[in-house]
What we know:
Blueprint: H1 3-21, H2 29-41, H3 60-70, H4 81-94, H5 97-109, E1 114-117, E2 133-137, E3 140-147, E4 158-164, E5 175-181, E6 187-192, E7 201-212, E8 216-217, H6 223-240, H7 255-266, H8 272-300, H9 309-331, H10 347-354, H11 365-376
Parallel strand pairs: 1-4
Antiparallel strand pairs: 2-3, 3-7, 4-5, 5-8, 6-7
Helix pairs in contact: 1-3, 4-5, 4-6, 6-9, 7-8, 7-9, 8-9, 9-10, 9-11
Amino acid sequence: MDVEQFRIKARNWLAEHVEEFSDFDPADLTAGREFRRALWDAGLLGITLDRAYGGAGLTDDHQRAFDEEASKYSLPPMGEAVTTGICAPTLLDFGTEEQKKRHIPRMVRGDEVWTQLLSEPGAGSDLAGLQTRAVRDGDEYAITGQKVWTSGAMDSDFALCMARTDPDLPKHKGLSMFIVDLKAPGVDIRPLRQMTGDAHFNEVFLDDVKVAADQMVGAENEGWRALTAMLTHERLALGAGTGAGGSGSGWTRPASARFIDTARRLGSSSDANVRQELVKLYIAERILAFVGQKMRDEIAAGIPVGSKGSVAKLATALISRQSASVGMAISGAASQAWDAADPAGAVLATAMCFSPMTAIAGGTSEIQRNTIGERVLGLPKEPQTDRDIPFRDILQNPVKK
């Protein structure tokens, strides 16, 4: 099917089915997954995904044609940032054929929800210092440890988990990545309540969780390669809207467009200060959109994006704060107090309270600046005295023999 035929197919399908999905609650994950299943069944999701994994196997031009048609509507996102933007691309990079054929179609279609088990109480920005251990016993591993700030764990089916398989190696070399069934015995998920009142994050305790050896992603003790790739996918997903098989959300309506409508409705669109802030936000969003498109094109062309993803991730965090501030400024008192009967009354206040998270998730803005300085601008690295010694010998990360 050529691009124009595919565009017509997408246009007709959206026109026929848009009413089923246009009135959606962004917090209702079920509605979003139903939308993805309908798209998948119609051949309009996983557009660039290899046919071996259930995709359509079409080109990026086909994906752009769909995005252009979808941008005319207010629709649920085509993917979930962690499942399709981070875990699925990592599995495509490092997973076995059996792992990919089993999970990738279900991830993109919305039948499986995934998360990451990375950060720990003593290993946040320094992920190589993690102490969750995986001990081999025959054809399986026993994983024990504690993870924290795990997005969406309560609603997830599986996780990509980093664990230490050899404490006698330096901290970057003794790590391995595993697929962990979050319904397995020994997994205890506890929500962490945020100032928004939601529990987006969780603590996850792993107590002798049994994982089959064939659920390792990549080679034993070489998990750092998979982890760095995962972090790149994360920064691209959050900053550039990438996703497996075109399951990103590049056509999502930007905040500036919504705020322009709000300003007109409230009669503040003629205020010079409001107009100036809206223009600044619009410019920032457009620049980020162009950066994201460039990165997606480079990925499609096989050009390594690498640490440039940190640029998009940092910009996303800055724009999130900027957007929340603009929304509060336009709405004035309505952003501070609202009718309890108004279901959308707390949207702006929630966005303001939620926005600081964007400067932490996927690596803090400080870490992104360090990465940009060292790997994009070529500035000297900070000294690391513990990089080449056995992990068990590092004083702050003791591991019992």
